[in-house]
Amino acid sequence: MPLKDFSVAVVGGGVCGLAAAYALSRAGPNAIRALEVLGLLQPLLSRVGPSELKTRFTKFISGSARHELIFDYETAMAHPEKHAGLGLHRAVFLDMLLDLLNPSTIHLQKRCIEIEPRDSGGVVISFADGSTYEADVVIGADGIRSVTRDFVIGQESPSPLVFTNTVAYRGLANHDELIRSGIQSDLGKGPLYFISPGKINLVAFASDHQKPLVPELPLPWVDSVSKEEVKNTFSECGPDTKILIDHLNMPNKWSIHACMPPLTSYVRGKVVLVGDAAHGMLPFLGAGAGQGIEDVVLLTELLAHAQTRKDNIKDVLAVYDIVRPPRANYVLEASTRAGQIYGDTNPVQDDFCKMARQLERIWGHDIGEDVVACIQMLCDRGIFASNTSE
C-alpha cells in the first residue's frame, strides 16, 4: 500500500497476527471469502495437495449403542456453486504466512507484558526481555490470554476470561488398528486429519453446563491424563466411543476458556483487538479463526484506505468498533449454544436444524459488504471526503 504517515505494530504471531501483518504489507464460507480479500487464498491452495485439503462435512451420530445418524449437514456438496469450507493443518497456514512476510518485520520469541499510551499520541509496547517498541497503532492479536485486551478493558475492570467447564481430551490413534477393531464409524470420509503416517487426531469434548462459569484456571491449561479418566468421562457412551478411547495414545486434557460475557468494545484509543484477544470462543462451530480473519480484513482495509491518516485513526477505529463486536459476539454466543447441543444426551432434530440455520448466517456473511458499509459511514461522518478508495 502507499506509504502512510503512521506506523502499525501487530502483537501476536498466530493466524490473525500474521494475516494482519501480511495484509498491511501489501495493502465460501465467510473465512474463505476473507482470505480471498486478503490475497491469501491462492498462495495457500498452491501449497497443499488434494490429499491435504479437506472439504468440511458435519455428521452427528449417536454415541449410544444404536449408533444412529442424528443429523447430516453437508456444506460443499449441497451447494457446489459456492465456496467449499476447507480444512487443513494449522502449521501449513502459519508457514505460508511467515514465508510471505519480510523477515525484517517479524520479531519472534517476544512476550508483551504492558501497553502504555504516550502523551505524544504513540503507544509503547513493553516486552518481557526489557525491550520496547512505539507505534501509532497497536493491533492486539495476542490470543486468549491477551495483554492488549487488559489495556482495552482497563486494569480496573474484571477479566472477561473464564473457564467454560468444557474440556477437550486429545490424542492420536492408529488408523489400521481402529479398522481391525471392528469400529462402525466410517474413517474413510469427512474431515479426518492424518497428522503422521497412519495416525488420526482424536478430540473428545466433555462439558458440564450445570456448573457456573469461573475465572480462568491457573496454568497449565493442558495436562496429561490417564486413559482411565477418559474412559470414566465417557462411560455411558456406546461401543465405538470405547474403541476409540482404547486406542488413544498418550491422551491429554485441554481446559477450554472463552471471553464471557462478550466484550462490548474492541478498541481503546489507538489499540484495537482482533481474533481470540477480542472474542475467544468455544470451538463447537469451528468459527473462531474465521472471525479473526474477518476482523483482519475489515481492519486492514480501513487502515490501508487512501484517506486514513494519522490524524483520523481514532475515528476509523471507532467505525470498526461499531461493526465488528455485534457480528463476532453473535458467533461467540452461537458457539456456546452449539456446545450445549453437542453435550445433550438426547438431542432432537430441531436442535440441529436451528444450528444449521446459524451456520448459514455465519458462513454466508460477506465481509466485503462490511468494508463498504464502514467506508460509507466514514463519509457520512465527514471523516472521508467521498466514498472512494482512490
From TrEMBL:
Organismal lineage: Eukaryota, Fungi, Dikarya, Basidiomycota, Agaricomycotina
Keyword Cell membrane: no
Pfam families found in the cross-reference section: FAD_binding_3 (PF01494)
Protein name: FAD-binding domain-containing protein
Keywords attached to this entry: FAD, Flavoprotein, Oxidoreductase
Domain FAD-binding: from-to ranges: 131-334
GO biological process assignments: secondary metabolite biosynthetic process
Gene Ontology molecular function, alphabetical: FAD binding; oxidoreductase activity
